[in-house]
Amino acid sequence: MEKHKVEVNGLSMACYKAGEGNTNLLFLHGNSLDSDSFLKQLNDSQLQREFTMYAPDLIGYGDSDFSNDPEKDYVISEQAKKLAVFCKKNEITDVIVVGHSLGGNIAIELLKCEIEIKGIVLTCSYPASKPLNMSVFLPSPVFPLFFKPDITASDIDKMNAAMYAPDFPPDDYFKQQLIKSDPLTREYLAKEIEDQSYTDQFELINQNSVPTAMIYGGKELLYNLDEVTNIDIPLLGGEVHVIPHCGHVPFYEDASNFKELLVRVIGLVKK
Prior knowledge:
Helix content is 35%, strand content 18%. The chain is α/β, with parallel strands linked by helices. The protein has a single domain (2-270), classed as Alpha/Beta hydrolase fold, catalytic domain (Rossmann fold, 3-Layer(aba) Sandwich). Helix 4 (76-89) packs across helix 5 (102-109). The longest helix has 16 residues, at 255-270. The mean pLDDT is 96.
């Protein structure tokens, strides 16, 4: 597996590439995280045989450049535009996008870009409506931290813990990712939500016919599954797929079951 950098509109975007399969997968990480989120998938021998996998660090995250114009570059639509340029430069076509949390919203936004998307797998991610439907989120003192620019060591501990199901063994895996991200990504994401300057993603999904799946952990601490599972959009398999014992990062908490489910929904995309 290699990690390389590609110049995108004057900024350097870092990306892992793994596998030599016939189907392209693009993994997009969540808010304040980076592509290391998906190392278990990228290193999986079965997935490497079946897919060619790409996992970039969005601009402002991980090993990608921080922006000198964060108000412009850190909003959802601009992140999607840069990813479209990245895909063109890497000749990535007919791609299935697996988006975690914020990455899922960026995956939906890619539907507006000149890139051929075969399917979208929203992982612990919910389309943004106007106004934002706050009932899909659980009341949590941790949730606002993901939109706060300056976070303390204590905040990082709380944000990391919120990734997992309550009974998952203590693990600091996501702390370094939280530390590495540009604090301004959270500030301008919060501003975008407050200003409602984002696209209504329900309208975007309804205007397109791209097959869409949703995967959640059954012990999610940030999203309200009762509300999420009542979503009114066409879904592969006819329902939101739930891995019962996982939290907000099922691809990390139970990579084996996540892989099985991912391969199954990708099979539905191909039909």
